[in-house]
Amino acid sequence: MTITVLFFASCRDLMGVSDRRMTLAPGATVADLISTLASEQARFADLAPSLMVSVNQVYVNRNVQLRVGDEVAFIPPVSGG
Amino acid sequence: MADDVYKIQNAEIKPDALYDAVLADSDGAVTTFAGVVRDNTKGRGTSYLIYDAYNEMAKKKMREIGDEIKDKWDVDRVGMLHRIGRLEIGEISVLIAVSSPHRKASLEACHYAIDRLKQTVPIWKKEVWTDGGEAWIEGDPSAPGTSRDRDI
After folding, report:
1. Per-residue pLDDT tens digits for B58-86
2. ipTM of the complex
3. How far is the C-alpha of B40 from the C-alpha of A39, rounded, in Å?
């Protein structure tokens, strides 16, 4: 299944892109997605514990299962204001 | 006509427009808060700031804050603007305006709105210092009441 993944701020700098399409096995969770990204970019594994994750603009836990077409965002600790 | 406003924008923030947007004849008070770009962080000189946002989600989270405010206080309208892109010293990065029949509600609600914005709205600040360094600033993910503890 194909999803869209968004990266912001320090996370975008690390991954080198602001968004990408990714194909995951059916039933994959947020945690599975994090593992896949960490296998491509080792420093993502270091960053991951500090990141919030949203699916379709709602903050979620890492055991949430992803669905076709989901928009997943990795959100470093926010610093607006 | 007066209405709620939740917006992310590149353009300069002009306080009067948001004030006018939230004010109606039934209001007795408007509280506004402006966050402004400071020229230093703990003494280290700041050259300018870059703000980035997850625009659609940021607007959604700001609207959620507005809804929380209306549950907690007797307020009429809420306006929240955040600017993104490059901001110079002295420019407004965030502007909040809350109108209410009586002053206490808008004063308290406006304070709550900026505190919550800094906890839950996906916006990031990069500081570029006068000594040539730069870094994305990150809020404290372990601080009580941050978004980490909510919405999950």
Report:
1. 999 999 999 999 999 999 999 999 999 99
2. 0.95
3. 39
